[in-house]
Amino acid sequence: MKRAVRVLRRAQLDLLEIQAYVLHDSPGAAGRLIDALVAALGRLGRFPSRGARPRDDRLRRAGYRYVVHGEYLIFYKALRSSVRVYRVLHGRRIYRDLL
Questions:
Q1: The domain 4-98 is classified under which CATH number: 3.30.2310.20, 3.40.50.720, 3.30.230.10, 2.60.450.10?
Q2: pLDDT profile of the chain (99 residues), mean per 10
Q3: Cα–chain-centroid distance for residue 15?
Q4: Where do the domains of the chain lie?
Q5: ∠ CA(13), CA(18), CA(22), 5° rounding?
Q6: Is the pTM of this model over 0.85?
Q7: For position 2, what pLDDT does the model report?
Q8: What is the C-alpha to C-alpha distance for residues 1 and 3, in angstroms, rounded to an integer?
Q9: Residues 14, 16: Cα–Cα separation, whole Å
């Protein structure tokens, strides 16, 4: 059963920030990256359990999962009837404090 994927406002803002940052150096790459990240978000509806559980105990207990796309981490929770995407962050960021 495919679940609806809901990209929360903070994750939407993350995508806009990523696009703006990459756009500064390479407009073509920015578009391709955002398209690829959006496609990865869409796949979560079909495969919500594929993401890894964070090592951080607090995040794991809260039910977060994440998938890696290139240098970016997509943090989400797989709920009964939907998937909620909370953040899309560069892998070098200290994500524990951002969730």
A1: 3.30.2310.20
A2: 92 95 89 93 91 92 94 94 95 79
A3: 9
A4: 4-98
A5: 150
A6: yes
A7: 86
A8: 6
A9: 5
